[in-house]
TrEMBL record:
<keyword id="KW-0813">Transport</keyword>
<keyword id="KW-0812">Transmembrane</keyword>
<keyword id="KW-0811">Translocation</keyword>
<keyword id="KW-1133">Transmembrane helix</keyword>
<keyword id="KW-0653">Protein transport</keyword>
<feature type="transmembrane region" description="Helical">
    <location>
        <begin position="6"/>
        <end position="22"/>
    </location>
</feature>
<protein>
    <submittedName>
        <fullName>Twin-arginine translocase TatA/TatE family subunit</fullName>
    </submittedName>
</protein>
<dbReference type="Pfam" id="PF02416">
    <property type="entry name" value="TatA_B_E"/>
</dbReference>
<dbReference type="InterPro" id="IPR003369">
    <property type="entry name" value="TatA/B/E"/>
</dbReference>
<keyword id="KW-0472">Membrane</keyword>
Length: 108
C-alpha cells in the first residue's frame, strides 16, 4: 500500500496516536473517510462530464482509441525508418574509418 511496509505503518499509527490522542482518532478517521469519499465522487463527476462532452461532439472511447492507435503506429513507423537509416549510416562510417586507419590497437 503506497510502498509503506508494516513497520512504517505501525510507526505512523503511533505518531498519530501521540498527536491526536485515543479519544480523537475515531473522529479523525471518520473525517478522513468522508473527505476521501468526496474526492472520489468529484473525480467520478469530472470523468462523466468529460465522457458526456465527448459523446455530444461525436467522439466515443472506441473511436478515440482507434485514432490514437493510428497515430502511434505512424510514429513508430517513422522512428523505425529514422533509426534504421542511422544505424546503417553509423556502420558505413565505422567501416570507412577502419579502412582508412586500420584496426586501432592499444600499445602498452
Amino acid at each position: 500500500m503506497f510502498g509503506i511496509g508494516g513497520g512504517e505503518l505501525v510507526f505512523i499509527m503511533f505518531v498519530v496516536l501521540l498527536l491526536f490522542g485515543s479519544d480523537k482518532i475515531p473522529e479523525v478517521a471518520r473525517t478522513m473517510g468522508k473527505a476521501m469519499a468526496q474526492l472520489k465522487n468529484a473525480t467520478n463527476d469530472i470523468k462523466s462530464e468529460i465522457q458526456r462532452g465527448a459523446e455530444e461532439n461525436g467522439l466515443d472511447p472506441k473511436s478515440l482509441t482507434e485514432m490514437t492507435g493510428g497515430f502511434n503506429a505512424q510514429i513508430n513507423k517513422v522512428k523505425e525508418d529514422l533509426l534504421g537509416d542511422s544505424v546503417v549510416q553509423a556502420n558505413k562510417i565505422k567501416e570507412d574509418i577502419e579502412d582508412i586507419a586500420g584496426p586501432v590497437k592499444r600499445s602498452r
